[in-house]
Amino acid sequence: MDFANRLKEYRLMIGCTQAEMAKIxxxxxxxxxxxELGAREPNLSFLIALADKLDVSLDQLxxxxxxxxxxxxSK
Length: 75
What we know:
mainly alpha
């Protein structure tokens, strides 16, 4: 699942509309909608704000999983 779909899924899980999320984040509805449509990708500071508001980790928000043979496992 890509970031845009994951963002929408988390928004729906907390019961917010796009307009409510935009207001919470201090951006326009159009700006927020562009994230859910995949037309724009947020910068790191905005990703952190999104994760905080949605009460998820950055890894969860962007769909990052750590493989079993990651660099940390090889030490």
